[in-house]
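USER:
Make up one protein:

ASSISTANT:
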Amino acid sequence: MTPLPAIRQLVLAVWLGCISTLVFADDLSRETPDSKLPGIALIIDDLGNQRGAGKRVLALPGPIACAFLPHGPYTRTLAEQAFSRHKEVMLHLPMQAVDHERAVYDKGVLTLDMTRQQFLETLAGDIDAVPHVSGLNNHMGSLLTRHPGHMEWLMQAISDRGGLFFVDSRTTTATVAQRLAQEHSIPNIERKVFLDNDPDPAAIRRQFRLLIATARREGTALGIGHPYPGTLDILSEELEKLEHQGIQLLPVSRLIELQNERKLAWQASSSR
Protein backbone atom coordinates (compact mmCIF):
# COMPACT_ATOMS: atom_id res chain seq x y z
CA MET A 1 0.00 0.00 0.00
CA THR A 2 1.37 3.39 -1.04
CA PRO A 3 1.92 5.70 1.99
CA LEU A 4 -0.25 8.80 2.09
CA PRO A 5 1.56 12.09 1.52
CA ALA A 6 2.39 13.82 4.79
CA ILE A 7 -0.26 16.54 4.35
CA ARG A 8 -3.03 13.98 3.72
CA GLN A 9 -1.93 12.02 6.80
CA LEU A 10 -2.16 15.20 8.87
CA VAL A 11 -5.64 16.07 7.55
CA LEU A 12 -6.86 12.53 8.22
CA ALA A 13 -5.51 12.59 11.77
CA VAL A 14 -7.20 15.92 12.52
CA TRP A 15 -10.49 14.71 11.05
CA LEU A 16 -10.43 11.51 13.10
CA GLY A 17 -9.60 13.51 16.21
CA CYS A 18 -12.57 15.80 15.66
CA ILE A 19 -14.90 12.84 15.19
CA SER A 20 -13.61 11.26 18.41
CA THR A 21 -14.09 14.51 20.31
CA LEU A 22 -17.65 14.90 19.02
CA VAL A 23 -18.56 11.33 19.98
CA PHE A 24 -17.12 11.80 23.49
CA ALA A 25 -18.89 15.17 23.90
CA ASP A 26 -22.15 13.62 22.75
CA ASP A 27 -21.72 10.82 25.28
CA LEU A 28 -21.26 13.36 28.08
CA SER A 29 -24.19 15.50 26.93
CA ARG A 30 -26.52 12.55 27.41
CA GLU A 31 -25.47 12.50 31.06
CA THR A 32 -26.42 16.14 31.70
CA PRO A 33 -29.19 16.18 34.33
CA ASP A 34 -32.70 17.13 33.30
CA SER A 35 -34.00 19.18 36.21
CA LYS A 36 -37.57 18.04 35.55
CA LEU A 37 -37.04 14.27 35.62
CA PRO A 38 -36.40 11.96 38.58
CA GLY A 39 -32.79 10.82 38.57
CA ILE A 40 -31.06 7.72 39.84
CA ALA A 41 -27.42 6.63 40.01
CA LEU A 42 -26.11 3.12 40.49
CA ILE A 43 -22.83 1.95 42.00
CA ILE A 44 -21.57 -1.60 41.68
CA ASP A 45 -19.26 -2.32 44.62
CA ASP A 46 -16.54 -4.89 45.27
CA LEU A 47 -15.00 -4.80 41.81
CA GLY A 48 -11.42 -5.81 41.17
CA ASN A 49 -11.27 -9.33 42.57
CA GLN A 50 -13.07 -11.13 39.73
CA ARG A 51 -12.33 -10.54 36.07
CA GLY A 52 -15.46 -12.14 34.59
CA ALA A 53 -17.93 -10.39 36.88
CA GLY A 54 -16.12 -7.10 36.31
CA LYS A 55 -16.45 -7.50 32.55
CA ARG A 56 -20.19 -8.05 32.93
CA VAL A 57 -20.50 -4.82 34.91
CA LEU A 58 -18.62 -2.89 32.24
CA ALA A 59 -21.03 -4.25 29.64
CA LEU A 60 -24.10 -2.85 31.42
CA PRO A 61 -25.71 0.02 29.50
CA GLY A 62 -25.42 3.57 30.75
CA PRO A 63 -23.21 5.41 33.23
CA ILE A 64 -23.00 2.76 35.95
CA ALA A 65 -20.37 3.78 38.52
CA CYS A 66 -17.73 1.12 39.16
CA ALA A 67 -16.35 0.99 42.73
CA PHE A 68 -13.05 -0.89 42.96
CA LEU A 69 -11.36 -2.43 45.96
CA PRO A 70 -7.94 -0.79 45.98
CA HIS A 71 -5.69 -3.81 45.74
CA GLY A 72 -7.71 -6.38 43.80
CA PRO A 73 -5.79 -8.39 41.20
CA TYR A 74 -7.90 -6.93 38.36
CA THR A 75 -8.55 -3.47 39.80
CA ARG A 76 -6.13 -1.50 37.64
CA THR A 77 -6.99 -3.26 34.37
CA LEU A 78 -10.76 -3.06 34.87
CA ALA A 79 -10.62 0.54 36.08
CA GLU A 80 -8.78 1.53 32.90
CA GLN A 81 -11.42 -0.23 30.82
CA ALA A 82 -14.27 1.37 32.79
CA PHE A 83 -12.77 4.81 32.21
CA SER A 84 -12.42 4.14 28.48
CA ARG A 85 -16.15 3.31 28.40
CA HIS A 86 -16.99 6.62 30.13
CA LYS A 87 -18.09 4.94 33.35
CA GLU A 88 -17.29 6.68 36.62
CA VAL A 89 -14.42 5.02 38.49
CA MET A 90 -14.62 4.99 42.29
CA LEU A 91 -12.51 3.71 45.16
CA HIS A 92 -14.43 1.25 47.34
CA LEU A 93 -12.51 2.14 50.49
CA PRO A 94 -12.18 -0.69 53.05
CA MET A 95 -13.04 0.38 56.61
CA GLN A 96 -13.31 -1.49 59.88
CA ALA A 97 -16.68 -3.01 60.74
CA VAL A 98 -18.33 -3.39 64.14
CA ASP A 99 -18.10 -7.18 63.93
CA HIS A 100 -14.42 -6.86 63.05
CA GLU A 101 -13.43 -10.23 64.52
CA ARG A 102 -15.57 -12.05 61.95
CA ALA A 103 -15.04 -9.67 59.03
CA VAL A 104 -12.69 -10.64 56.20
CA TYR A 105 -10.74 -7.50 55.36
CA ASP A 106 -9.15 -6.55 52.09
CA LYS A 107 -5.70 -5.05 51.88
CA GLY A 108 -5.69 -1.32 52.55
CA VAL A 109 -8.36 -1.31 55.29
CA LEU A 110 -8.61 1.74 57.56
CA THR A 111 -8.94 0.79 61.24
CA LEU A 112 -9.72 2.48 64.50
CA ASP A 113 -6.35 1.68 66.09
CA MET A 114 -4.29 3.46 63.41
CA THR A 115 -2.34 6.60 64.15
CA ARG A 116 -3.20 9.55 61.98
CA GLN A 117 -0.01 9.04 59.98
CA GLN A 118 -0.80 5.37 59.38
CA PHE A 119 -4.37 6.27 58.45
CA LEU A 120 -3.31 8.90 55.91
CA GLU A 121 -0.57 6.77 54.37
CA THR A 122 -2.96 3.83 53.93
CA LEU A 123 -5.63 6.11 52.44
CA ALA A 124 -3.15 7.66 49.99
CA GLY A 125 -2.03 4.20 48.89
CA ASP A 126 -5.64 3.12 48.37
CA ILE A 127 -6.51 6.17 46.27
CA ASP A 128 -3.37 5.85 44.16
CA ALA A 129 -4.12 2.17 43.51
CA VAL A 130 -7.26 3.01 41.46
CA PRO A 131 -6.54 4.86 38.22
CA HIS A 132 -8.93 7.64 37.12
CA VAL A 133 -10.67 7.69 40.52
CA SER A 134 -13.32 10.40 40.77
CA GLY A 135 -14.93 9.55 44.09
CA LEU A 136 -15.06 7.02 46.89
CA ASN A 137 -17.47 5.14 49.11
CA ASN A 138 -16.96 3.00 52.17
CA HIS A 139 -16.61 -0.78 52.01
CA MET A 140 -18.04 -2.09 55.31
CA GLY A 141 -17.10 0.61 57.88
CA SER A 142 -19.95 0.17 60.34
CA LEU A 143 -17.43 0.89 63.13
CA LEU A 144 -15.18 3.50 61.56
CA THR A 145 -17.87 5.69 59.97
CA ARG A 146 -19.43 6.39 63.38
CA HIS A 147 -16.20 7.95 64.74
CA PRO A 148 -16.01 11.71 64.07
CA GLY A 149 -12.24 11.91 64.62
CA HIS A 150 -11.38 9.36 61.95
CA MET A 151 -13.98 10.75 59.55
CA GLU A 152 -12.41 14.18 60.11
CA TRP A 153 -9.03 12.73 59.04
CA LEU A 154 -10.67 11.17 55.98
CA MET A 155 -12.56 14.25 54.84
CA GLN A 156 -9.62 16.58 55.40
CA ALA A 157 -7.47 14.32 53.24
CA ILE A 158 -10.14 14.19 50.50
CA SER A 159 -10.50 17.97 50.65
CA ASP A 160 -6.74 18.48 50.44
CA ARG A 161 -6.49 16.22 47.40
CA GLY A 162 -9.40 17.96 45.67
CA GLY A 163 -11.66 16.82 42.84
CA LEU A 164 -13.23 13.84 44.62
CA PHE A 165 -16.78 13.22 45.78
CA PHE A 166 -17.85 11.03 48.70
CA VAL A 167 -20.69 8.52 48.95
CA ASP A 168 -21.80 7.35 52.38
CA SER A 169 -22.81 3.72 51.87
CA ARG A 170 -24.63 3.89 55.23
CA THR A 171 -23.58 0.50 56.58
CA THR A 172 -24.74 1.81 59.97
CA THR A 173 -27.44 4.27 60.97
CA ALA A 174 -24.91 5.81 63.37
CA THR A 175 -22.68 7.03 60.54
CA VAL A 176 -21.32 10.59 60.71
CA ALA A 177 -19.42 10.33 57.42
CA GLN A 178 -21.77 12.39 55.26
CA ARG A 179 -22.05 15.12 57.89
CA LEU A 180 -18.27 15.47 58.00
CA ALA A 181 -18.14 15.53 54.19
CA GLN A 182 -20.64 18.39 54.19
CA GLU A 183 -18.63 20.29 56.79
CA HIS A 184 -15.59 20.06 54.51
CA SER A 185 -17.62 21.15 51.44
CA ILE A 186 -16.96 17.85 49.68
CA PRO A 187 -19.59 16.91 47.07
CA ASN A 188 -21.50 14.09 48.72
CA ILE A 189 -24.55 11.88 48.69
CA GLU A 190 -25.88 8.92 50.68
CA ARG A 191 -27.01 5.51 49.58
CA LYS A 192 -30.79 5.15 49.56
CA VAL A 193 -31.25 1.51 48.52
CA PHE A 194 -29.12 -1.63 48.66
CA LEU A 195 -30.23 -3.73 45.71
CA ASP A 196 -29.04 -7.15 46.75
CA ASN A 197 -28.76 -7.71 50.48
CA ASP A 198 -31.11 -10.55 49.58
CA PRO A 199 -29.60 -12.18 46.45
CA ASP A 200 -32.92 -13.68 45.33
CA PRO A 201 -33.73 -12.21 41.86
CA ALA A 202 -37.30 -11.37 42.86
CA ALA A 203 -36.00 -9.43 45.89
CA ILE A 204 -33.45 -7.60 43.75
CA ARG A 205 -36.18 -6.55 41.32
CA ARG A 206 -38.31 -5.27 44.21
CA GLN A 207 -35.36 -3.24 45.51
CA PHE A 208 -34.73 -1.77 42.07
CA ARG A 209 -38.36 -0.68 41.87
CA LEU A 210 -38.06 0.77 45.37
CA LEU A 211 -35.12 2.83 44.09
CA ILE A 212 -37.27 4.21 41.27
CA ALA A 213 -40.15 4.94 43.63
CA THR A 214 -37.76 6.79 45.95
CA ALA A 215 -36.48 8.89 43.05
CA ARG A 216 -40.04 9.78 42.02
CA ARG A 217 -40.83 10.83 45.59
CA GLU A 218 -37.60 12.64 46.46
CA GLY A 219 -36.30 13.67 43.04
CA THR A 220 -33.06 11.68 43.27
CA ALA A 221 -31.97 8.31 44.66
CA LEU A 222 -28.71 6.38 44.75
CA GLY A 223 -28.62 2.59 44.70
CA ILE A 224 -25.72 0.24 45.44
CA GLY A 225 -25.38 -3.33 44.21
CA HIS A 226 -22.72 -5.99 43.82
CA PRO A 227 -21.45 -8.05 40.89
CA TYR A 228 -23.68 -11.00 41.69
CA PRO A 229 -25.13 -12.92 38.72
CA GLY A 230 -28.70 -12.18 39.82
CA THR A 231 -28.02 -8.47 40.25
CA LEU A 232 -26.44 -8.15 36.81
CA ASP A 233 -29.27 -10.15 35.19
CA ILE A 234 -31.92 -7.89 36.70
CA LEU A 235 -30.04 -4.71 35.81
CA SER A 236 -29.59 -5.87 32.22
CA GLU A 237 -33.38 -6.13 31.98
CA GLU A 238 -34.46 -3.10 33.99
CA LEU A 239 -32.01 -0.47 32.76
CA GLU A 240 -33.42 -0.67 29.25
CA LYS A 241 -36.84 0.37 30.58
CA LEU A 242 -35.79 3.53 32.41
CA GLU A 243 -36.24 5.98 29.55
CA HIS A 244 -39.80 4.81 28.95
CA GLN A 245 -40.50 5.20 32.67
CA GLY A 246 -39.33 8.81 32.65
CA ILE A 247 -36.30 8.08 34.83
CA GLN A 248 -32.82 9.34 34.02
CA LEU A 249 -29.76 7.25 34.89
CA LEU A 250 -26.86 9.54 35.77
CA PRO A 251 -23.26 9.28 36.92
CA VAL A 252 -22.97 9.76 40.67
CA SER A 253 -21.29 13.15 40.25
CA ARG A 254 -24.19 14.37 38.08
CA LEU A 255 -26.75 13.06 40.57
CA ILE A 256 -25.03 15.05 43.31
CA GLU A 257 -25.24 18.17 41.13
CA LEU A 258 -28.92 17.56 40.44
CA GLN A 259 -29.64 16.99 44.12
CA ASN A 260 -27.88 20.22 45.06
CA GLU A 261 -29.67 22.21 42.35
CA ARG A 262 -33.05 21.02 43.58
CA LYS A 263 -32.13 21.74 47.17
CA LEU A 264 -31.15 25.31 46.27
CA ALA A 265 -34.33 25.77 44.24
CA TRP A 266 -36.43 24.51 47.16
CA GLN A 267 -34.63 26.85 49.59
CA ALA A 268 -35.17 29.79 47.24
CA SER A 269 -38.89 29.05 46.87
CA SER A 270 -39.24 28.62 50.64
CA SER A 271 -37.58 31.96 51.33
CA ARG A 272 -40.02 33.67 48.98
About this structure: The chain has nine helices and nine strands.
